[in-house]
Amino acid sequence: MWENSLSRLLKINYPIIQAPMAGGPTTTELVAAVSTEGGLGMIGAGYLSPDQLRSQIQEIHKLTDKPFGINLFVPKPYTADGKTLRLAGDLLKPIREELQVGEDLLVLPTFEQDVKTFEEQLKIIIEEQISICSFTFGIPSPQVVTKLKENSIVVIGTATTVEEAILNEKAGMDAVVVQGAEAGGHRGTFYGHEDRGLIGLMSLIPQVFDVLDIPLIAAGGIMDGRGIMAAKCLGAIGVQMGTAFLVCKESGANALHKEAIMEATEDQVVLTRAFSGKMARGLNNGFIEIMSQKEEELPDYPLQNELTKAIRKNAAAKGSTEYMSLWSGQSPRLAKKLTVRQLMNKIILEAETLHSKL
Amino acid sequence: MWENSLSRLLKINYPIIQAPMAGGPTTTELVAAVSTEGGLGMIGAGYLSPDQLRSQIQEIHKLTDKPFGINLFVPKPYTADGKTLRLAGDLLKPIREELQVGEDLLVLPTFEQDVKTFEEQLKIIIEEQISICSFTFGIPSPQVVTKLKENSIVVIGTATTVEEAILNEKAGMDAVVVQGAEAGGHRGTFYGHEDRGLIGLMSLIPQVFDVLDIPLIAAGGIMDGRGIMAAKCLGAIGVQMGTAFLVCKESGANALHKEAIMEATEDQVVLTRAFSGKMARGLNNGFIEIMSQKEEELPDYPLQNELTKAIRKNAAAKGSTEYMSLWSGQSPRLAKKLTVRQLMNKIILEAETLHSKL
């Protein structure tokens, strides 16, 4: 029941992809373990410098000879407006004082730097002969897509609406990750307002399936064999799971972040722009509450992300979950503290048992 | 594959429930046709006077000898605050002028009247020997539940969170409709803030299933055999479908409402409090846009609902979809203009084909 066009395309046993959670969770151990178990491990390389990326790729190669993938953030222009930056600064000031975090140096990122980093990351992916590359927050240029395909790299896009899925197919993507409203972490919406893409998988998968020719990978709230089989019924031939792998032993997420998910209920998971300036889903906490009053006026991603970086880092070091970003999908009650091997064995068995019982 | 504890409980062939869409769609013809085809037709009686309810029950009995159900709104206290009412009046004034709708008489509803109507509706359900009664916007009192059960009436609750599902089970409900964030029309959330209940079915069904003993019915975005099978994989043993039946020939929804859904895309479906003071999902239009600036300050349900009644009625008569409430779930692209018989045959065949292919 597991072999299909996606598993053949990616050369994996089970079309189960570990979501490329940028910012810590996708350690070398996590990525290697998922691939070793027959799924697809992915490095969330969005925040990695080119050197860090190359080094992690080489480390993973030492642990597994199975394919794994890299996810990159597609750079998007943005502007730093003084008034908006001051507003964010004023809101963050009391939190900085409470945590005793000094003023950030405020060397703000620029679009030009982001583009340069993106190009260097792509160069490394080609040089290191990575076989799978996925993209979030947009679609790379035709030149980039052509270059990757010339190097036999499978390219995968991300969509949160039918229109975004079509744009990915037209751009030559080999497959598309369809991110439902349930998904934890950043929304991948790139075409139109962020609110447009908040569609539950029960609605989104079949509507995308009906207009798409390339394989569809479902992401959002899927944590076990039930979700895998449900996604299959709706038209997906693979799944991408974030939160389920985030709480695994091998994940690099902060231990308090993992604990918070294990104790959370589904109604505590909210959407917020507070941490990064881009809509993302995670557990509600003090930081989100404080920022919610001016949430729509905060600077765009990645500016707000830079402005809150020192606070998040300090809060994590101090164990103050009230000021950390506790990304999670809408299914925290389904989270299990397992090793990757235990999790993969569990969900594969669940799906096979459900399959035989239907 | 269709017989299970829910189909036996409700005495129907297929555990497919036509959602009790109050305010027009659930005509005698629609309810009777769904039950005749082996599903469960439901009268959305929330806005019906006791006389209207009795009369419709008797009309349906003439068309079918199969069981059908009634859905009631559980009354909830509310207060009319002068400032809030004036704010709503000011916002509605230009729309009244454009449509040439006179000022409403403003005989506002009261909680006491709502309770009286609810009690009369319950009396009729018992007198007319209805076998199934479901509830939205709350859980009826223990006295009501006991009385209905003494009269061999199956009682079904509505939940949008795990906690609400547990409250329904504790109250003695025989089954619970789990309404995902995808669902069209009013949100059933009754415990805590409306935002709490916006959980996609991919997340909500398994999390409810794991803590519930009574049968679980999935509602939200399900339009065809794929959705039915997916809901089953996740743990539901029945589905409740609204939008799919709303566009059927027998439905009493305005023809322009049906057309609007047939032409809509999934990203045009939004959440709004503008029409009724309670969060509901429908197609975006001018009315929602105008009211969105002050949406959080509008009077609570049912006050705002009364204040907008004349506008909605007039807009419907004039064919002005910009000022009508165009309720829809998040799957409008899956809508088909069919008779109930055609729809039921189609989805049953789809589910059976998918089942045999898995």
UniProtKB/TrEMBL annotation, chains A, B:
Coiled coil, from the record: none
Pfam families assigned: NMO
Keyword Ribonucleoprotein carried by entry: no
Role, per record: Nitronate monooxygenase that uses molecular oxygen to catalyze the oxidative denitrification of alkyl nitronates. Acts on propionate 3-nitronate (P3N), the presumed physiological substrate. Probably functions in the detoxification of P3N, a metabolic poison produced by plants and fungi as a defense mechanism.
Record field: catalytic activity: 3 propionate 3-nitronate + 3 O2 + H2O = 3 3-oxopropanoate + 2 nitrate + nitrite + H2O2 + 3 H(+)
GO BP of this protein: response to toxic substance
GO MF terms, alphabetically ordered: dioxygenase activity; nitronate monooxygenase activity; nucleotide binding
Family: Belongs to the nitronate monooxygenase family. NMO class I subfamily.
Cofactor(s) the record lists: FMN
Protein name: Probable nitronate monooxygenase
Keywords: Detoxification, Dioxygenase, Flavoprotein, FMN, Monooxygenase, Nucleotide-binding, Oxidoreductase
